[in-house]
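Handout, page 2. Input:
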Amino acid sequence: MAYVAVKGGERAITNAHKWLGEVRRGDTKIPELSVSQIREQMSLAVDRVMAEGSCFDPELAALAIKQARGDLPEAIFLLRAYRTTLPRFGFSQPVETAQMAVHRRVSAAFKDIPGGQVLGPTFDYTHRLLDFKLAAEGETEIDSAAQSYSEMPEELATIAQVFEHEGLLEIDGVNNNEDPPFDLTREPMSFPAERDQRLQALARGDEGFLLSLAYSSQRGWGNTHPLCGEIRMGEVSIGFIPDELGFEIELADVPMTECIMLSGFASIEGNAPQYTRGYGLTFGHNERKAMSMSIVDRALRARDMGGEVTAPCQDEEFVLYHSDVVEASGFVQHLKLPHYVDFQADLQFLRRLRSEFTQAKDALNQSSNEETKVAAQ
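Output:
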């Protein structure tokens, strides 16, 4: 809804929209950036928009980025808004990340993890120097060795499977609850929050906010300095059971990033001490987000592990209420919209306070002068 509080406001807004379109297009002598180019060549930005927009559709995410002029929070807002118009058919089956067709898998804790370390496409080992060859016109040369991930085995053992025979790593029990999982897109936030609500909020939370919380935890504000048990990125099959069929069908293979952080020891429910873990899962190739999510997930379990809540990253109300980029951006940016009535009311109140202050000060000075005269006599 447009808030038009001054004469000519509607015309000004229409002109602003036209100007925005011109600025978005840029110099018309330069070829226009296509949605397919964004989708294929800015894939990490597309993945972030899909993850925080809670909608897996690379084409729509690329379109949102183009419309938003590369402003990712604005693109996330656009995708979220479109998502609300889509029909809901039901819930997919739980994904089996152990069956992921892996493109990248590394473990910082287990050097000889079965299946080996698979570096995959990553900036981790690149020099942070500008590559001016990318500014040259023409096709970029592609090394055929970069395509070797196609020769990867279909499945690689997870860090949980590696430790399974010894019971050294905490595992999630089977959820026999027939109630549907919490749906943050249709239900209001509630506290205390169960882990399904927390993980859903973190999965669509702002990457920068979660990154800062994870960093704060590592620096002592939460006392969570974990080891990276495993990061894996690849394609996971999504299954769905239509009511009219009654059996599962495969909808698509969706790229996802999963992270498991090993964080300290604990004796859970009377069991022998074992590693506790934090968990992160996002759409696409989004390692920084998945790592941050897993660190914050573990921090939010402090009370469950018998610890005290002493830091912001451990306070679920603080984290979950403030992690959403759309709400945070909207709440801050609404301050740009007209608040003329509020300001005029504050201005009148401030003027009255200043007038009363001046009158009281003058009266005090007059009284002081009279007392001085009497004393002089």
